[in-house]
Write a structure and sequence with these properties.
Length: 140
Amino acid sequence: MKKDIIHVVGTMFFENDRLLIDKPRKRSTYQMVGGRVEDSDPSFLAAAIRECHEELGKDAIFDESKIKPVMDFEEIATSDPTQKIHMHIFQYEGILKGKLTTSEEIESFMWFGANDDRNILSNTLKNEIVPYAISKKLIK
């Protein structure tokens, strides 16, 4: 039976030539801030904003109007090689302020640079996001 494509959002936050990534408690690799689009989300942007609030914690401060779409692509889900996902990628055009807070879902955060170990990354980060960020000189 053919599975429907799942829509997923991700938001890139940059600071000091590094990309913010997070480590979910249920996964062995780091991912970008984001997650699955829910039926209750009125748009992909709304889903990205919701995921930022959920994953960064209540003490993270960002201006929702500075979250801008930058690309989208399809790939195979890291967690299920039979599942296609459509990634909608956004970029925060500002500096994230406040404090990042871990949660039941998120174990830790990391600011990732171009020379850091890519083996800790999800396929999306490793194959799409980090090469994009390096090509645009967003991380060094």
